[in-house]
Amino acid sequence: MKHRKRVIVTISQIEPDRVIVDLWGSDTRLVNDFNFKLLKHLGLERVADKVRLGKSAEYIDYRISDYIDSDFRPVIAGKPKIFIPY
After folding, report:
1. Radius of gyration of the chain (CA)
2. What is d(CA 70, CA 27) in angstroms, rounded to the nearest whole number?
3. How do the pLDDT tens digits run along the chain, 86 residues long?
4. Is the residue at 72 inside a domain?
């Protein structure tokens, strides 16, 4: 079963082929230090761009999601073009 189908089936209250997995289940995600240690442990180089500047979890690396076969991906919407900070 593909990831999207697995999530839709679960939301429909039908038993999927396996429990859905979500690594990025909260706003904290993986803090930078742990993220870097995990990449090193997996033998992966740091190549991800910062997506959440000034936070303790600034990076998202989908290779980690792929490694654990996560059914979800985080979405970073960003600021609208007309955004003016106070």
Report:
1. 16
2. 16
3. 999 999 999 999 999 999 999 886 665 578 888 888 988 999 988 876 777 777 778 888 888 888 889 998 877 777 788 888 77
4. no
Residue 82 located in a structural domain: no
Output the CA angle 26-3-40, nearest 5 degrees. 60
- Residue 33 in contact with residue 78, Cβ under 8 Å? no
Q: How far is CA 67 from the centre of its chain?
A: 12
Nearest Cα neighbor of 22 from 11, 36, 37, 33 is 11
Q: Which domain holds residue 60?
A: 3-67
In a domain, 77, yes or no: no
| DSSP label at residue 59 | B
- Under DSSP, is residue 12 helix (H, G, I), strand (E, B) or coil? coil
DSSP result, 23-39: TT-STT-S-HHHHHHHH
Model confidence, pTM: 0.70
